[in-house]
Amino acid sequence: MKRGRDTKPHIGIFGRRNVGKSSLINRLAGHEVAIVSDIAGTTTDPVKKSIEIPGLGPVVLIDTAGIDDTGELGAKRISRTIETLNQVDLALLLISRNNFAETEINLIREFQKAGLPFFIVHNKSDEEKLDNNLDRVLKERYDTPLIDFSSVNPGNLDDLIRLIRETVPESAFIKRPLVGDLISYGDTVLLITPIDIEAPEGRMILPQVQVIRDVLDNEGICVVCKEREVDAYVKKMYPKPVLAITDSQVFPKADAAIPKNIPLTSFSIVLARQKGDFVNYLKGTPKLGELKSGDRILILESCTHHVSCDDIGRVKIPRWLSNFTGKDLVFDVVSGLGTVNRPITDYAMVIQCGGCMITRKQLLNRLKPAIDAGIPVSNYGMTIAWVHGIYHRAIAPFTGNTGDKGDYL
After folding, report:
1. Is there a contact between 283 and 378 (Cβ–Cβ < 8 Å)?
2. CATH number, domain containing residue 315
3. What is the H or E stretch that residue 395 is in?
């Protein structure tokens, strides 16, 4: 399989309690990374394990709770398991002792509804071999591979890994460039990176690191400075940068400092093009100008982090939007991949962070309910650019006719 740069495909392990999901993960990892027990229901919540699978590379395996769990708490666990479908690129459905019934049929329906590729593993074959008739029926009904396997005596482990490799969609391995298609060999890219209370001690924030790596991977040169040093650099910059990228929080400062003949955008907008639904962001962002008093805005953070007194999503964007519109707006913030408690139709607008900590599929699935309901969506950086009157400059590097940007629009 030809790959782009690694983005760690997410593989979910699904099935009833005690079919050997955790044992399978340990076998694939080559050591014990998941708790194994004969007691049904040992795994209670989806648990992610980053591992390297020989012949496949780095992946994230997600160990899920049994889909036959019982009681009120069990129902919540099943719900969490189903939510995981929006996070994975491939599903492995484990069965054992030739037990395949309505429980598995319903789960496969959920796979199909999510457009999720899957195959079936009949586990614990050391205890009971796969019945030939069940093998034939399942292959005919679902047109998907089925393998008889034992986590205890994995004589055909290579065959299982081959099936994973062949079934994981190519898109799970392909990483779109951040700015690599906008630059040529030896081009200079200026990065404006404030060091403030939200910057991790001794480190840079992840989007900044990702852009630096992308520029270097594409034979470019990075010049990195804080916003206070931009004016001094601009006076003596040589060669002239082909692109300037700023933290969205200092957009107005960067816009004033960077000459208009140098394209300017933000780290968040760069991520919006790479990972987000950029087409719908472009359609939705102008709707910020149509908000009315009483409108409810949903802000989606795709990670959990320490909340500072000047947090970008919880404090600054609500303040800037309220000042820009002059309206009395209501804001809800949901972090991580948590559940949105209100009906999505309660919202007049959804604003998504850059999504540096999640996969493109996870981010698109996060936005899909709003898009399907016709609710405008935007991104942190695009929203900030809009309220500060520099939106069209900020998106211009990606909406012109340079490079291969047609793939994104």
Report:
1. no
2. 3.40.50.11410
3. helix 391-399
Lowest average pLDDT, out of 23-27, 121-125, 324-328, 376-380, goes to: 23-27
Q: Could you read off the pLDDT of 351-370 as tens digits, one per residue?
A: 999 888 888 888 888 999 99
390-393 long-range contacts, CB within 8 A, separation 24+: 390/251, 390/252, 390/255, 390/264, 391/285, 393/255, 393/260, 393/264
328-349 residues labelled b (16+ CB within 10 A) or e (exposed): ebebebbbebeebeeeeeebbb
Q: Are residues 32 and 164 in the same domain?
A: yes
d(CA 358, CA 390): 27
Q: Which domain holds residue 131?
A: 10-172
Q: Which of 271, 275, 269, 224 is nearest to 251 (CA)?
A: 269
Q: What is the pTM of this model?
A: 0.72
Give the three-state DSSP class for 129.
coil
Write out pLDDT tens, residues 37-64. Answer: 454 444 445 688 888 877 778 888 999 9
